[in-house]
């Protein structure tokens, strides 16, 4: 028997060292969470011992961005990037372990999400086939950064490519976090909504009845993506448009703490147009177990709305500081409204039912969006009957949470069963990931 498999058989009753990796659609860096994990199923215990986010440099971004959410990306470039990204991620893992004074041989499992380059739920409008016939509607997703390369370079057993099993089981490949959210954060005292705000935002609703049958999960629409897109486009204009010199100085490719949005005034007309555009999408105000991506929410989504806005000042992309802050304020409120509408649509009956039981409902925020104070305040404004808090109050670093959850998913695949996920009408009962031996 392979030595790695022999070792696995001895780990079931021990504390396991699992490194979770997450590279999200924001493309800000590789999240690396070194976790101690005990047990499995509802007895899973997780402790994040080390966490870092290794920022991506220009080489990584220049390779990935042309492939990202691009149906015309050259196949040979996607294929080459599959191995190249794995090598980059492996180097980042090994460097982080060295920084933490941890030998790779002491790590039991590597759990890698990979890099999403295309996500197409069956609701995503697709161009017709070459012969003019309608394209087949079927969910598909692609994460690159091959697990075999990771396992070979790091010499750590690797679980990767988590999303394909979800599609095989009639899901959309996302969201996957409800499985780990349920194992770690179910409560008998309060209804919990776990909201992760990355490039795309998603939530898990866990009723206090503590049964997986009541769990509801979905993507809500844009998380940080449209706000980030606006800043990147403004940075581009600063280098290409002589009239854009009045734009503010950007120290980051995102709105740190929501500082720009805080200086702006919401353009109600443009906000209405954003909402109308979202309503025109097949995934508008997503229901239970639905997913979306930058294939729907991208630069042209924003620019098209601005072009349609002829009754207020924001009729073109702003090239002066105050108007740009107004745009950020509007995008931030649109994001908050998308979150609240998706939660209300997917959970309204559940929230009403459990409200009658007098159980408090608390929303815990994680991901990069947790640091955007304007966004968090807007979400609280849109959901006045729900307390909005940081996931830090659950005892987990909100930045590390998603990477840590993939460590939990890998742990459940290797040491647990899918039985704990049964009886849900919305979420396929399965475990995830492909195993690559060193």
Question: How many individual domains?
Answer: 2
Q: Can you tell me the CATH topology of the largest domain?
A: Nucleotidyltransferase, domain 5
Percentage of β-strand residues: 15-25%
Classification by helices and strands:
alpha/beta
Distance from N terminus to C terminus (CA atoms, Å) equals: 13 Å
The top-level CATH class of the largest domain is Alpha Beta
Number of strands: 12
> How does CATH name the architecture of the largest domain?
2-Layer Sandwich
Features:
EC 2.7.1.170; 13 helices; alpha/beta; about 40% helix; about 450 residues; single chain; Nucleotidyltransferase, domain 5; Anhydro-N-acetylmuramic acid kinase; seven-stranded mixed sheet; 2 domains; five-stranded mixed sheet
What does this entry look like structurally?
Its EC number is 2.7.1.170. The chain is α/β, with parallel strands linked by helices. The chain has 2 domains: about 5-175 and about 395-435, Nucleotidyltransferase, domain 5, CATH 3.30.420; about 220-395, Nucleotidyltransferase, domain 5. Helices cover about 40% and strands about 20% of the residues. The chain is built from 13 helices and 12 strands. The chain has helices at about 5-10, 60-65, 75-100, 145-155, 165-170, 175-185, 225-240, 260-265, 270-280, 300-310, 320-355, 375-380, 400-415, and strands at about 15-25, 30-40, 45-55, 110-120, 140-145, 160, 190-195, 200-205, 215-220, 360-365, 385-390, 435. The strands form 2 sheets. Strands 1, 2, 3, 4, 5, 6 and 12 form a 7-stranded mixed β-sheet that branches. A 5-stranded mixed β-sheet has the order 9-8-7-10-11, with helices on both faces. A hairpin with a 6-residue loop joins strand 2 and strand 3. Helix 6 (about 175-185) crosses helix 13 (about 400-415) and helix 7 (about 225-240) runs antiparallel to helix 11. The chain is globular. The relative contact order is 0.17. The mean pLDDT is about 90.
């Amino acid at each position: 028997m392979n030595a790695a498999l022999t070792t696995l058989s001895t780990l079931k009753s021990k504390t396991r060292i699992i490194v979770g990796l997450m590279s999200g659609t924001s493309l800000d860096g590789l999240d690396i969470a070194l976790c101690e994990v005990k047990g499995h199923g509802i007895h899973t215990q997780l402790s994040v011992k080390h966490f870092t986010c290794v920022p991506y440099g220009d080489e990584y971004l220049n390779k990935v961005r042309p492939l990202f959410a691009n149906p015309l990306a050259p196949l040979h470039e996607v294929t080459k990037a599959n191995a190249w990204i794995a090598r980059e991620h492996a180097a980042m893992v090994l460097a982080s372990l060295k920084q933490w004074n941890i030998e790779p041989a002491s790590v039991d499992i590597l759990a890698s999400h990979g890099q999403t380059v295309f996500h197409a739920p069956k609701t995503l409008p697709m161009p017709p086939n070459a012969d003019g016939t309608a394209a087949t509607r079927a969910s598909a997703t692609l994460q690159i950064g091959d697990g075999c390369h990771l396992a070979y370079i790091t010499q750590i057993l690797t679980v990767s490519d988590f999303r394909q099993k979800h599609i095989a089981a009639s899901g959309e490949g996302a969201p996957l976090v409800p499985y780990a959210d349920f194992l770690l954060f179910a409560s008998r005292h309060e209804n919990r909504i776990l909201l992760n705000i990355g490039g795309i935002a998603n939530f898990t609703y866990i009723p206090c009845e503590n049964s997986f049958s009541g769990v509801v999960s979905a993507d809500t629409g844009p998380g940080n993506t449209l706000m980030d897109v606006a800043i990147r486009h403004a940075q581009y204009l600063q280098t290409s448009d002589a009239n854009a010199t009045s734009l503010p100085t950007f120290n980051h490719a995102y709105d740190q703490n929501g500082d720009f949005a805080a200086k702006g005034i919401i353009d109600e007309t443009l906000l209405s147009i954003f909402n109308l555009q979202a309503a025109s999408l097949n995934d508008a105000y997503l229901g239970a177990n639905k997913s979306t991506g930058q294939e729907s929410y991208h630069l042209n989504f924003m620019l098209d709305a601005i072009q349609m806005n002829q009754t207020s000042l924001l009729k073109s992309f702003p090239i002066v500081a105050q108007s740009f802050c107004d745009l950020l304020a509007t995008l931030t409120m649109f994001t908050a409204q998308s979150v609240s509408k998706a939660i209300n649509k997917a959970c309204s009956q559940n929230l009403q039912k459990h409200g009658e039981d007098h159980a408090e409902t608390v929303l815990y925020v994680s991901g990069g969006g947790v640091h955007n104070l304007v966004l968090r305040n807007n979400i609280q404004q849109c959901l006045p009957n729900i307390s909005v808090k940081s996931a830090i109050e659950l005892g987990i670093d909100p930045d590390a949470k998603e990477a840590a959850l993939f460590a939990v998913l890998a742990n459940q695949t290797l040491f647990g069963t899918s039985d704990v996920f049964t009886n849900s009408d919305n979420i396929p009962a399965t475990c995830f990931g492909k195993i690559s031996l060193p």
